[in-house]
């Protein structure tokens, strides 16, 4: 009987071939068998970590592989007679395919999960704009800046209407930074329009259900309303339609509505993280002494509304006197705080707003004097030129007989009746 041929076992094959009890060709994964069957191939010891040279001495795991170029092929001396000097050890050479190089990323990925990207890059761009630039333009008070930068964006994460408001404002700010009419500017106009619509649509239901949990977000958004309104009119809205009085009147009603709804929550807000915004300048600052020209102008305005004036009824005169008196108080507020600009619209009587809505001449004249206070915001990108734009609309709508009452605000606004400029 012929002697049984010895079998040289290899313990270096892939795990899959060992399980199937078939011979593995030990090529870099996948091996030939796994490649044919299209199955995962895994080695306990990766083949590329082993030395593969023609002169290698094969053996079991752990066998030292030595080559001696001075010996003829096939004549390998026993280890005890090897000369150390001429013997060289072949450095393993790793030949890794691009697929193998990328295989390391599989350790960071789930095997059975299917993910899709939901990055809204435009919105991320807008939030970056807000947190790096836009927040600085919402107040000239350093303490307020920190609130607009850190606290309010965190609040917006829980209240979508506030988040949309911040993104709309950032888009409007980017329009200001891109004055040329191009595709980029049109993109920001579209984003501003979308976020403004989403913000207002989501904000309206909140006004009828203000609670402890949302009052801070409602107050923050209400503080943004004026900025959004002025900026939207400048860049996107109807500022060029020739009816800025209607727009500013709409803003007045909006300011007053939010102010009234939040009144019962002011104490809570003041004790909270937005408290600094509630403590307005008129509550902490000292009134300024009015200049003689302002005093004389307001006295003249009040005199033109005296009982002897024939252009108004007694009820109208009473509403006008109230508006003039509050206008004087607003002039006395320190001009450093932008928030003082919005005091007058909030404290006006309903009767005066009704007269303004009807475009009564005296109501428009008083509004023209308010433009001097509104001009304090000309340094802001979001309201630059609005006082001039509003005064021009008032001036052009009144009969020439009212011109003497408009002389002082015209000088303060630096308006020339021959100018045709736009905001």
TrEMBL record:
Per its UniProt record, what Pfam families does this chain match?
A: Fungal_trans_2, Zn_clus
Is the keyword Transcription regulation assigned to this protein?
A: yes
* Database matches in PANTHER family: STEROL UPTAKE CONTROL PROTEIN 2
* Protein name (record): Zn(2)-C6 fungal-type domain-containing protein
What GO molecular functions are on record for this protein?
A: DNA binding; DNA-binding transcription activator activity, RNA polymerase II-specific; zinc ion binding
Bias category Low complexity: which stretches?
86-98
Q: Which domain of life is it from?
A: Eukaryota
């Amino acid at each position: 009987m012929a002697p049984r041929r010895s079998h040289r076992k290899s313990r270096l094959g892939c795990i899959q071939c060992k399980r199937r009890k078939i011979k593995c060709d030990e090529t870099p994964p996948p091996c030939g068998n796994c490649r044919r069957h299209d199955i995962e191939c895994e080695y306990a010891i990766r083949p590329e970590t082993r030395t593969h040279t023609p002169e290698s001495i094969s053996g079991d795991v752990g066998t030292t592989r030595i080559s001696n170029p001075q010996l003829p092929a096939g004549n390998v001396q026993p280890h005890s007679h090897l000369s150390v000097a001429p013997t060289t050890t072949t450095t393993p050479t790793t030949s890794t395919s691009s697929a193998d190089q990328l295989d390391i990323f599989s350790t960071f990925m789930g095997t059975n999960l299917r993910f899709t990207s939901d990055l809204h890059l435009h919105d991320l761009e807008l939030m970056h704009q807000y947190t790096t630039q836009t927040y600085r333009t919402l107040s000239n008070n350093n303490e307020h800046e920190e609130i607009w930068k850190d606290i309010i964006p965190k609040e917006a994460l829980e209240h979508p209407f506030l988040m949309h408001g911040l993104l709309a404002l950032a888009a409007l700010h980017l329009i200001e930074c891109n004055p040329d009419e191009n595709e980029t500017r049109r993109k920001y106009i579209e984003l501003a329009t979308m976020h403004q619509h989403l913000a207002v649509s989501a904000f309206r239901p909140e006004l009828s259900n203000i609670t402890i949990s949302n009052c801070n977000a409602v107050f923050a958004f209400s503080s943004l309303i004026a900025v959004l309104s002025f900026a939207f009119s400048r860049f996107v809205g109807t500022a060029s339609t020739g009816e800025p009085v209607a727009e500013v009147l709409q803003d007045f009603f909006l300011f007053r509505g939010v102010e009234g709804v939040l009144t019962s929550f002011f104490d809570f807000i003041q004790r909270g993280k937005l408290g600094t915004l509630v403590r307005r300048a008129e509550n902490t600052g000292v009134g300024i002494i009015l200049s003689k020209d302002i005093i004389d102008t307001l006295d003249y305005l009040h005199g033109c509304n005296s009982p002897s004036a024939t252009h108004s009824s007694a009820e109208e005169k009473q509403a006008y006197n109230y508006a003039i008196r509050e206008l004087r108080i607003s002039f006395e507020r320190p001009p450093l705080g932008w928030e003082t600009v919005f005091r007058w619209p909030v404290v006006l009587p309903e009767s005066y707003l009704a007269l303004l809505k009807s475009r009564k001449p005296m109501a428009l004249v008083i509004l023209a004097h308010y433009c001097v206070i509104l001009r304090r915001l000309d340094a802001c990108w979001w309201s630059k030129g609005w006082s001039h734009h509003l005064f021009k609309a008032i001036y052009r709508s009144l009969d020439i007989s009212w011109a003497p009452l408009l002389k002082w605000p015209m000088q303060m606004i630096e308006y020339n009746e021959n100018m045709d400029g736009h905001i």
